[in-house]
Structure formats: structure tokens, C-alpha cells
Amino acid sequence: MTNDLLGRHRAVLPDWLALYYEEPLEITHGEGRHVWDARGNRYLDFFGGILTTMTAHALPEVTKAVSEQAGRIIHSSTLYLNRPMVELAERVAQLSGIPDARVFFTTSGTEANDTALLLATAYRRSNTILAMRNSYHGRSFSAVGITGNSSWSPTSLSPLQTLYVHGGVRTRGPFASLGDEAYIAACVEDLEDLLGHTRAPAALIAEPVQGVGGFTVPPDGLYAAFREVLHERGILWIADEVQTGWGRTGEHFWGWQAHGRNGPPDIMTFAKGIGNGMSIGGVVARSEIMNCLDSNSISTFGGTQITMAAGLANLNYLLEHDLQGNARRVGGLLIERLRAVAAHVPAVREVRGRGLMIGIEITKPGTDEADPRTAAAVLEAAREGGLLIGKGGGHNTSSLRVAPPLSLNVAEAEEGAAILENALRSVQ
Fold it and tell me: What span, in angstroms and rounded, lies between the C-alpha atoms of 251 and 18?
């Protein structure tokens, strides 16, 4: 059955639509932190549909909310008043930390970032964007145009002029040998020099922790230091929280809060986990920025009732059960366990991350050279052991990505770490 489905997939879907594993999986159902495939195999899920099943599979509170809403009305568009959309927008605006915040819902993180770019360029009347090297912001034409990761940028054509800034990758690049304070100072100096060579940009867009790039973590305060330079010139700061939001980093509810010394971002985007699998994205911005568009706009599917009901139920659950705190506690145990394992595996260059967002960089032993074959082999071995993880990386890097649902318990963290240890050792 799986082979037949794979053949049908290849016959009608694009060649560039990637599938994991030499024998791709059909996942048929899930519960909690586990999923099952079409052959009945059970897996501990440490990737959650690319960080999207953030809370748990088949979470009763969310499935109940979706079922009840589907029995009333599924969709009406933004042309009509929508109570669940208003209620979720109120919650998100309050939680965002952005003063006088307005919220616009989309169907994905890509669309959210696309909207943020539209707002920033319209507000600033500039099509120049600052982005981070090794970044990823989605697959739309504008988002691809600012993505600083060649593996995910299929064209150089873009409606925007993009300039790339140092800082997102702490342990590589020209400033890697510096201490954190000196590293930040060098990145700020580079930013100031860059701005001296160009017309005033509209905004800097940055992931507080780079997702597709391999869960790379800059020093705390880097974007706060950037903010001082940007603010002096009126340049906006867009925080891409598509992967870091909702408490995943453990220490903070939003990734930008690790860089919040000079206040919140001007614009923030979100998606993935808030819907726990339902398609929700969105943008939060100060009212004067959100309201700067001078033509009509709607969103046919953004904010539709059924996804808003899911988002409300999921947000209530994660706040009531302190899943941010759980990510901090269980994630802290998991990353230390993986670091202990990595100390005895020469192929592991670094274990990094925050909360339940952990990257394991794989290189050829004794070098800084990427080793994508070994990374792929570990992915396969982990699957054989009953664990699903992700992979990523940017310029000359290869990384494994570990991002379980935020309700992960200690026993499951230990189980997953043991499977991953065996997978890493098996490829030595």
C-alpha cells in the first residue's frame, strides 16, 4: 500500500516536493507524542509536523473545539464579523507585548511573512530589506527573495532588494572566535557599515532562533543591539516567530524576548504551533503600521472560524498547563542528555538550542566540514529505532532538528534521547 501511494505521489506531485526517508512514511494517526504509520509501526514524534503539532497529537480539547465549530459553521471569510477570530486576536495582541497591537490572520507562516514585508515596505516606502544570513522565511516569491539559505532559495529574482547581515549563526563565520559581547559589537559594527552603503531599508526581518538553518542561536541581546541602530534610522524590526513562538524556547514566550532590552519588535509574525496542526498564521503590528495600507484587502481563509476555534482551545491549553515551563524543564534535561551523548560521538560538532528546539550539527569527524550523508543516516537509524526527527542546515552545514510537542514528559525525553544515542553511535 505504501509503495503504491509513493508511486501515485510521484506521478502527480512536483519532483521538488521533498519526502523524508528512503522508504517514505504514511502517517495515519497520532496520540499525545506518538504517531503510527500505515504498517502499524509506532513512533515517538520529535518533529511534530515541522513544529506544527506543538501541543500534542489528537489533543481532546482541540479536537472537541474543532468538532463543535464544524457543526455550527466552518467558514464565512473576513467580510463578516467573526467572534472566534476577534477573541483569538484579542488574546494574541495582549500576549505579543506590542503596544496598541493589531492582528491580521493568514493561513501560513509564509503568508504571514509576506504580509509583514508588504506592511513594512508600504509604511517605509522602501523595497530594501535586511535579512540574516542562513535565514528561512517561507516559500512565496517575496519570502524566497529574502531567504538567506541557498538550499531553500530556488530563484534570485525578487520584488525586493535584500541585504544580508551577520549574527544568526554564533559558531561559524568571521566573528565565531569572539566572546559574546565582542561578537555582538562586531555584528553591530558590520550592520552600521552596511547601512552606510545603501538607501534606507524598510525593515530587518530575523528569526530569534533560525529554524530551517539548523536551530542556530545568536547571543542574547543581539537584536536589542541591532534595534538601537535601526531605531535611529526609522528602520522597522520584524521578528519571525513562526517557529520560536508560544513558549517553545522555554525561557520566554516569544523568542524576541531574549533580545527585548529595547522593547518589542515593530512587527511580529507567527504560525505553526498555535493551530496544533490547523492552518493558522498571522501578523501583529503597531496600529499605525498595520493600518498604513491605502487600498482594500481581505483574507478569504485567514481567520476562518474552524481554525480560530482550534487556536483558542490550543492557546488556552498551553497557558493553563504551563507548557512554556515544561519546555524549559524537560527541554533542559533533553539538551544536557544529548550533549553528554555528543561528547562521545566525533561526528557531532555541536548540540545547541533553547527549550524544546534543539539542533545537532553533524560534521566529518575532526573537521568543520558538513556531512549530510551521515545526518541522513542518523535520520534513518532514528526512524528504525522508533523516533522521528527533522534535519536542516545552511551554508556548508548539516544538522538534525529535535522539536517535540511541548507536552513531552521526562520519560519520553529519556526514551527519545536513548534512541537518538543509538542512532548516532550506529553511523560511527
Answer: 33
The CA-to-CA distance between both ends of the chain, in Å, stands at 34
Q: How are beta strands 128-132 and 161-165 bridged, if at all? A: parallel
309 in Cβ contact with 62 (< 8 Å) = no
Using a cut of 0.70, tell me whether the model's pTM lies above it: yes
- Using left for φ > 0, alpha for ψ between -120 and 50, and beta otherwise, residue 12 falls in alpha
Q: Which three cell numbers stand for residue 149?
A: 539559505
DSSP lists the bridge partners of residue 32 as 57
Conformation bin of residue 77: beta by default, left when phi > 0, alpha when psi is -120 to 50? left
Q: How far apart are CA 380 and CA 34, in angstroms?
A: 17
Give the cell for residue 394. 545552511
Q: Examine the pLDDT at 157 and tell me if it is beyond 80.
A: no
* Helix (DSSP H) and strand (DSSP E) numbers for the chain: 13, 15
Three-state secondary-structure class, residue 131: strand
Residue whose C-alpha cell is 473545539: 65
Radius of gyration of the chain (CA): 21
Please give the Cα distance from 124 to 167 (Å, whole number): 24
- pLDDT tens across 124-150, in order? 999 999 999 999 999 888 888 888 888
